[in-house]
Amino acid sequence: MFKAFWRPEAILFVSVFCLTLAVQYASWSYFDYTDQEVWESAVSIFSEGKEISLSDVSFGYPGMTILWLGRFFVAEGMLVPKATALSISILISFSVALATLLAYLLRKNSFWFAGVFGLLLFSRLYTFATPPSAVVTPLIVSLFLYMLYLFERPNIGKRSLIFLGVLLGLALLTRLDIGLLVFCAVLVPAYVLFREKTFYIFGFSCLVFVLGDTHLWHTPLTYIYEVFIKIQDHTLHTYGGHTYVNIFTSSPLAFISLVFGLILFFGYKKEFTLPRGYFVWFLVTTLGIAALLLIPESRVVWYFYPLLFTWEILLPLFLFMLLPKIQVPKPFLFLNEKRLEAVTVSLLIGSQFVLLLSIL
């Protein structure tokens, strides 16, 4: 057991989790955030053993991962504001650590994992998001990376599919509308890859959702109806400004990544190291959700956050594919491919940090 703990993968996960937790907790506990009073109130109500009512703004998200963890900390004697901030921070930190670990497992001989960690840690998208959106976004990023893991290892066992189902269930528990979109997007390639084994994904995602959402224990049909009414309201409610402009200004790195990805996919087929089926699937998923923005007065810009995060963390990988094509000038011949990767990651993380500072 102790040997397993000291494996590089375990050390990486724990280190990233702790570093992210320190940064996230400092941010969520000392700075105001979107819908802060709403979610502190929800944690307080849930900690008293009461249900979140239809009249509460937090109803239907459902944000149950935040509520359950917050309830635990309140029961341990922590004040509600601190318990809420710590719950959000732990959930984000777990997802960032998982995404970093998956990037390491996928490309052990590159610095991609460092880019994933830095880009997720300092993303300014957290500052725009409500707590459920902030929590579910890096979770879905890790889910998309896990899908890449499965695309590259299609002969994987059922435990890996169960884990994917658990991740999907947690996404549904955190933000149902975004989770449902990803749920539908994942099941299509999953069925193509795994056929009848897709049942493990579907079954365990539903199981986690039903066990975690207390509303489903009492009045499931009424709750589902009210939730879908609320999702419809979220989708059609006016959100100031044109949504495409909001998305572009939220994450220019994601759009740069999309451009590089398309250039590599069509122009550098030998250098393109991602499974082509995975890239097509993720591109179609992006375009499909983008089509929702055509709805008049739509504010589904929130649905784009997980996609933006994922395109951002794919950017260093795309740039790494192009590094062998670079002719290094003689004064910089000491910059071999690994050092160029390190420089690339440093510049991207620096850019992300500057973008974050620009709105603080």
Give the topology.
Elements: H1 2-5, H2 8-30, H3 36-47, H4 64-75, H5 80-106, H6 112-121, H7 131-152, H8 158-174, H9 176-194, H10 198-212, H11 220-236, H12 243-250, H13 252-267, H14 276-291, H15 305-322, H16 337-357
Helix pairs in contact: 2-5, 3-4, 3-5, 4-5, 5-6, 5-7, 6-15, 6-16, 7-8, 7-9, 7-15, 8-9, 8-10, 13-15
Tell me the distance between the termini.
44 Å
Order of helices and strands: HHHHHHHHHHHHHHHH
Structural class: mainly alpha
Total number of helices: 16
Could you name the ranges where pLDDT drops below 50 across 5 or more consecutive residues? Answer: none
Shape: globular
Largest sheet: none
DSSP helix fraction: over 70%
Estimated share of beta-strand residues:
under 5%
Strand element count: 0
Mean of pLDDT:
85
Rg, Å, rounded: 21 Å
